[in-house]
Amino acid sequence: MSSASTTSTRQVQMLTARAIGGPEARENFGIRCLARYTANNWKMLVPEAAMPRASRTLGRWQIVIGGQATETQVAYLTAAEARRLACPRPPETSQVNGLSGPAGDFLTLCARR
Predict the structure, then answer these.
(1) Minimal CA–CA distance to 49: which of 39, 36, 60?
(2) How many helical (H) and strand (E) elements, i.e. helices and strands, does the chain have?
(3) Fewer Cβ close by (within 10 Å): the C or N end of the chain?
């Protein structure tokens, strides 16, 4: 019996006008979440809100809604920790498996390993 290995990659993209089809498209985002932002990022994405000092605390984000920024601490988890929280039971006994496709869809957290 062989075991399958899984490679995980992450891709982050700056929300530039070109990346989303033009500057007008940004107005479709009513809630904006920023972490480790620069002054240029802030001016481009939420110019209507006063910019607080950026935090270097892992998981510390600014959630901006209607021009109001609120500092929020989000869970800073490894993939294994997130998987344990999302799938508290072993994947083979989880009801989530019925919702997942062959690739392990359910936010990719409960994929069979």
Answers:
(1) 39
(2) 3, 3
(3) N
CA–CA dist 43, 1 (Å, integer): 55
What single-letter DSSP state applies at residue 88? -
* Cα–Cα dist 15/5, whole Å: 32
76/58 Cα distance (integer angstroms): 7
User: Which residue type sits at 56?
Assistant: R
Beta strands in 15-67 (DSSP E): 31-34, 60-65
Quote the Cα angle for 11-14-15, to 5°.
120
Average the pLDDT over 50-74 and give the result. Answer: 92
Instruction: Please enumerate in sequence order all residues whose Cβ is within 8 A of that of 68, keeping only pairs 6 or more positions apart, or say none.
Output: 49
Question: Would you state the structure tokens that stand for residue 8, as one six-digit string?
Answer: 């995980």
Give 80-113 pLDDT, tens digit per residue. Answer: 888 888 887 665 655 555 555 554 444 444 544 4
Please say whether the beta carbons of 15 and 45 come within 8 A: yes
